[in-house]
């Protein structure tokens, strides 16, 4: 929306001369700017440039000569040349300005000066995305003629008060997007109510909180004029709906995406009969689509992706039948829990331009009737469970199709070799679809595509020459994970994209020398092929745009060329697993943005160049399996404070481990193994604090993969890859798995001294390997604190002493090697410790206990006392049984001898006693007593025969 400028404004063609004071104000404004593209070349003090009404972006009144319009937006005339510098207060001396547009320029966090209040005639003020900061000046309230105000996408401080807005009663357009309004609470509602002419309101990502019903303003009919409302990316909930329904008769577009809306979609929205666009994307809505939505006869775009909608797609599409199916142009239902096949009835939506069903749970085949949607421009059905064959019939009338995304399904694309598609695609995303084995010939007709991804498509062929005749629009090519073979041509003359190109040909069978690439390429991935020869051709990438370079796992050889000063934007450099040799050139220090450097498995030699210390953003450094020598530089700890992964295994480093490495508090993996290091393990090693925390500092690296044009950037992500010694075996880690490892490996060196006592505070360490050194002393007593340890190797040292009992608390330990030391005493008892085989403890002659030996030397003495106690307990029970047996036996004999009445009474008494002894102990007493009499007469004879003497109770 643009505010109309009064008809008495004109350009200098009418012979109007500008005023000298206003000309000087503009020249002062220009002095504070950097104009790299010469946008303001017409502005000057020369005689031929004296009339400022002739200057770029300036319009004057044909009556007064005052400047009434200044339009310096970077978006004007389809040019995008940014001005940089300060927002000079002199600009606001132009008190007759009606229109001021500075959008898209960079004013280096300047503040809006209070002198802006002098622009009391201004009707249109656009400061969108100007990199402004500070507080919003209250003097904005003086701009009472404003009809258009855009302050969005800057860096202003959090706003506490919006009351000044209520004075701008003529406002029709207001955009405060990305200004923090959390402190104004619900007062923004009252302010909006005081702007009766407001038709466009955007408060996108303003940290708005719940709309509390009791604070709803009283809505007058004069204030219900909102036509376009954007409240996306806030923290609003369903309590907001009641306020929104006040605008049911005016709203044309309503954006509520990325909030906190839950539950079913309210049917009340179907009363907004003027709606043309409705967005509920990225919320937590459930259920289906209300059937009444089919009566929204003007609705053109419906955004419901990124919710929890469920049910069958057939039912959801059926609920949209009615007059809506005649108007709907964009249907966005992706990233939900919708099931079933794509229904044939989709053909009834004749106006449909975009069908977005990405990442739902669709299954079945794609109906050929989709080819009847002649207005279709984009099909997005990737990441489902669709199957079957896609043929020419699916595209019979789709002459307007520009985007085709069907990746990550089980689809086979089967077009005849002589078929010419009716469309010219811009986006082609067919990853993991079956296109091969021949290279798809129908691509020859696609002369305008900008984005192509046919990775993993089972192509077993060479790339035809015609493919490289790419249009200047092509900015992303991904042909990786196929079986493509052959030699690549010189690509510097084949590709003419001037903004930046991303190429991924990794995981194929390409061979020959590396091709020459265009100077402005932004990302290259050629890993896991068969390229050979020198890498010097990479020096042709002199445009300074390259951010990602991966030529690992090839057969490249030779020295690194000293041209890296041309790659100042590089974020990832991976040259691993080749046959490169020689020293690392000092120009590597020019890579100030470098985050990941992989040089492992080559034959590099010499010292690590000191210039690498300039790469302060470095997080991943892998130099293992080379021939680097000298001392480990102290500047690694001093200057590379962002390091997360330091892998120097299998080189020729010597000298002490510098204590400065303890300053690398983000480190999750430290591997200095298989070198010639000596001296002590730094006692400060416990300062590697990330190894004591559950959180990991490791994350993916992000880079600019390609540029569609001067304003569109497409980012890529890269997860570091490495071969790591884990539990005694070398394993490859990629796809983010490396982030889970927290390891210290100092094995196979000449380290001496003791294990630092405080190493046990590294609670989250999962592997500690100090084997094959000359360490002495004992294991720290509180080693059991390292409860996340899965692997511990202290073998082949000179350690001694007892194994600390706390080791029994290492419940996750699955690999243990303490062999060939001088440990003594008993192996601590625990399920975990006794689960290891004897090999984990061999070579410690004074160590005993399971699993190494069944017993320890002092086990016999410690077992005597328990045996005596058992004997004493037996004789106590036995004597008691005998005594009771004698007594009861005597009573029994006596009862037999009694007369009948007394005999009967005694039997009743005995029966009562029997019942009382019904518990377990009572039964035992009776059992022993019953046999007591029988045993007693034989005890003496049995004792003499066995020469068995009764021990005393005191023993």
Task: Fill in the keyword field for this structure.
955 residues; 10-stranded parallel β-sheet; 22% strand; disordered N terminus; single chain; 31-stranded mixed β-sheet
Give a topology summary.
Layout: E1 9-10, H1 20-31, E2 33-34, E3 58-61, E4 67-71, E5 84-85, E6 99-101, E7 110-111, E8 124-126, E9 132-134, E10 148-150, E11 155-156, E12 173-175, H2 187-193, E13 200-202, E14 228-230, H3 241-244, E15 253-255, E16 262-263, E17 277-279, E18 284-287, E19 301-303, E20 308-312, H4 313-319, H5 324-327, E21 330-332, E22 337-340, E23 354-356, E24 361-364, E25 378-380, E26 385-390, E27 403-405, E28 410-413, E29 427-429, E30 451-453, E31 476-478, E32 485-487, E33 501-504, E34 509-512, E35 521-525, E36 530-533, E37 548-550, E38 555-558, E39 572-574, E40 579-582, E41 596-598, E42 603-606, E43 620-622, E44 627-631, H6 635-639, E45 645-647, E46 652-656, E47 669-671, E48 676-680, E49 701-707, E50 713-718, E51 722-726, E52 729-733, E53 743-745, E54 750-752, E55 767-769, E56 791-793, E57 800-802, E58 815-817, E59 822-826, E60 846-848, H7 859-897, H8 900-916, H9 920-946
Parallel strand pairs: 4-6, 6-8, 7-9, 8-10, 9-11, 10-12, 12-13, 13-14, 14-15, 15-17, 16-18, 17-19, 18-20, 19-21, 20-22, 21-23, 22-24, 23-25, 24-26, 25-27, 26-28, 27-29, 29-30, 30-31, 31-33, 32-34, 33-35, 34-36, 35-37, 36-38, 37-39, 38-40, 39-41, 40-42, 41-43, 42-44, 43-45, 44-46, 45-47, 46-48, ...
Antiparallel strand pairs: 1-3, 2-5, 3-4, 49-50, 51-52
Helix pairs in contact: 7-9
